[in-house]
Amino acid sequence: MSRVILLSNDDGYDARGIKLLLEALDGLGELFVAAPDGEQSASSHSLTLRRRIVTNEVKPGHFEITGTPTDSVLLAVTALMDRKPDLLVSGINHGPNMGEDVTYSGTVAAAIEGTILGIPSLAISCVQRTLENEEEIVSIVRTVVKSAIGLGVPDGSLLNVNVPNPAIAPIKGVRITKLGTRHYENLLTKDVDESGKVAYTVGGEDPTWKDEPGTDIAAVRNGYVSITPLHLDMTDYKAVVEMEQWRFQL
After folding, report:
1. How many CA atoms lie less than 13 Å away from 27 in the CB half-sphere?
2. What is the pLDDT of residues 53-75, one digit of tens each?
3. Residue numbers of the domain that contains 113
4. Is position 190 within any domain?
5. In what helix (H) or strand (E) does residue 63 lie, and over which residues does it extend?
6. 109 near 43, Cβ under 8 Å?
7. Angle at 216 between CA 242 and CA 12, to 5 degrees
8. 195 domain-assigned
């Protein structure tokens, strides 16, 4: 039985990134696509409730979904596919997903949903938002995914992959990393309309990253592909032990 690979993203079905992902994974298995019908960046692990989600089969095995990345993966696995996929790959995201930003990312959320459903999953992002350097990006993504297939994704974890900008300098290799830390300046823009109502727009400047050794941002800044294994168990086990000493008077 041939390998089945599910592809999704948060930039939308027509995004350049998912087209490059199809190219990168060509020949590695049967490719099935389920992606939002429009951009869902920063949608996080949002699930659509109490609203119809429409599926449009653009061509056999390729679906546009009127929902979030999480909706797309859930529908694909539980309703649209003949069998559970052997691998899920989300991306290629137009821009990085590092540090705390993984909690907002729809790209990472698609991989989280795959992991919850018991599917080895990867989220792939590229610092170069335009994805102009197609050959380099496709080659790197193919190599990373082939390695994940051959070596296996750790149980209960997903792999968050960030590719440096190949237009800045040749990419040196791969590093296994931890999440970095960032800070946003001027995150909100405030405006007041004619009626005096105050409104805010979330956007702002690019983040300032703490250049800490061993992190995803340090790897990418130094020209290495960053692969961060993310585990869904967010329990702070050290705190559990410490808090066992707490006494509650109920």
Report:
1. 5
2. 999 999 999 999 999 999 999 99
3. 4-180+211-243
4. no
5. strand 62-65
6. yes
7. 110
8. no
